[in-house]
Amino acid sequence: MKKKMSLLFVGLGVLLNAQDEAVMEVKAQIIRPIQVEVTKSIDFGKVVTGSFSRVDGEFKVTGEPGEKYIAYIKELGEGNGEGTIEMINDTDSSVKFPVRAWTDLFGSNPTINSKTGYNKHTVGVDLTVPQTQIPGNYTSNLTMVVRYE
Description:
single chain, mainly beta, six-stranded antiparallel sheet, two-stranded antiparallel ribbon, 1 helix
């Protein structure tokens, strides 16, 4: 009987040691969403054919202070600080001409300002109107894309 009891306790000991467990900690730091808005649009007004003009615009990026982010102008492509976009005639979309666009974002991944919670970025367009350009109203778009790094 004693031997049977010993075997029973040994058997229970083996069963009790036949499982294990570990606790995984789950954490999250909640941060403010990153947002972008236009604070100054680019408007050349009236421009004479055969002339040059440069106008700057501005985007404001707001988010979690101290966080790094990636920002670029969609029409120029990620990683490009300058390039060419097309100005398109409002009444005849087949009439267009290229202009140089640039940004202060080239080659940098900025950090949200730790004091203000935002940064401002300059975007500019250099407009050289060909002498032969058909008069009319022309438009184009510059879209800033932002995301946390």
